[in-house]
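Standup notes
- HV: blocked on the assembly model, inputs below
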Amino acid sequence: MAERAQRRRSALIAGASTVVVFGVVIVLIVSAPGWDKVQQAFFSPQDFRASFPDIARKFKLNVRMFLIAEVFILVFALLLALAKSSRSALLFPLRITATVYIDVFRGIPAILVIFILGFGMPGLQIDGLPIDPVFWGIVALVLSYSAYVAEVFRSGIDSVHESQRSAARSLGLTSAQTMRHVLLPQGVRRVIPPLLNDFIALQKETALVSVIGPIEAARQAGIYTARSFNYTSYLAAAAIFVAITIPQTRLADWLIARQRRRTGTRGNA
Amino acid sequence: MTTPKLAVEHVWKSFGDRDVLCDISLQVANHDVVCLIGSSGSGKSTLLRAINLLEPIDDGAIRLDGTNISEYGLDENQIRRRIGMVFQAFNLFPHLSVRKNVTLGPRRALGQSASEATARADDLLGRFGLTSHRDAFPDQLSGGQQQRVAIVRALAMDPELILLDEVTSALDPELVGEVLAVIRELKSSGMTMILATHEMGFAREIADKVCFLDGGRILEEGPPAQLFDQPQNERTQAFLGHVIEAQRP
Ligand SMILES: Nc1ncnc2c1ncn2[C@@H]1O[C@H](COP(=O)(O)OP(=O)(O)O)[C@@H](O)[C@H]1O
Ligand SMILES: [Mg+2]
């Protein structure tokens, strides 16, 4: 009983302090001398309504880009992780290549990769090479994000205890079979939450592809602004991005919490 | 003279500049049970891992049916399939059900069909009283049940030899008995085994030969009655004195 009363009091305090803090912040902003202008420029309901449909329509391009990119990232990153985790002397060249690749692409800002591929590749004018900037934008995102995701995969594989490898090898499984049936399934399961976080970042970064031409949601918002001299359209674009990323963020948090609960209560034999 | 099932000949192994196995020689006849005793760090696990080719040796030879299996360039997987291993911490695959733990080796390493491997797994699980747990996951089982599953997993490969590394050391005392009972049954079915163990009473009961390891050397070996009742080496005497002291209720 005392515990429930305590909990109710905590909830009350949390609620009250939230109302007070946000109340003060809002009052301060609204009473600022330039507020009227800012409200007009950023929070205009008419402009929100006017710009939203076009932006939502262009957002389909963002969705298409990240969905395609995510599939290729999963495959490419997994190959990179396997190459970097390989132990056999025969595969040494592969291991070096993967290591260098990951180091390099984790170091280059994604926007530079987009510029280089988006302007460079079509510029080569090689027959048969696509010139569609959306294509090169997706390729750039895949190249860039695979380096991160590969490290996520690898940390998952590495986190599986050495004794699992011993057990699998003692059954006569080859090292490839050990990876496929024992290490990978356990490792991947553990890194699903961080993987989801990388994908959330990727989904926002699809906006960067607009620098080489394609008109996606963020760019469409900019076009509206240029025409109307009103910035509310940016808010509309932001709202759309937030609407799809927040559920995924909650999901990632929930998965992490669940994992922590599990490893907390159950020993790993 | 018949060829022993397993012969370890003058094996040396070091980690860095630390010698962990020093000139180890050991013979295991078919259907015999050999127990390795010795304090922690004496090299028991390393010797078992070396026999299963999980740890490369620096010098010497390990022969299975007379064939040198420690030679460089042999197909290690082919050899490991013939030697079962059971670990102190069970090392079951936590993402697989009991049944899948048991069938993984036969399916992937021996190329058995799913139905063939499953039939054999169910058979063995039944023999060791685990039928009701076959769809469970390892973390839903007691330590004793997990270790029995680990033994079944090794048996499903139809090994010629099983290595058991302190398989009861991680268990609560009341669960030790059920695992020892399984090992007893294996012995009566004629399985050749090498056990590293701290259970002196059990070693005396089940072993055909006991080896005392100390600092990576086999200091003394012999039938259990001789080694436990009339140890010759004074380090063996000291070790047994300590252990019996510690295991007295
Ligand atoms: N992978 C390893 N690297 C370095 N030292 C090791 C390794 N494995 C075992 N050792 C050392 O080898 C010695 C023997 O270990 P081990 O074979 O596990 O003994 P036991 O099983 O008898 O307790 C110990 O001193 C241990 O620290
Ligand atoms: Mg040991």
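- HV (later): unblocked. Confidence is low (pLDDT under 50) at residues 265-269 of chain A. DSSP finds eleven helices and no strands in chain A.
- Next: hand off to the docking folks.
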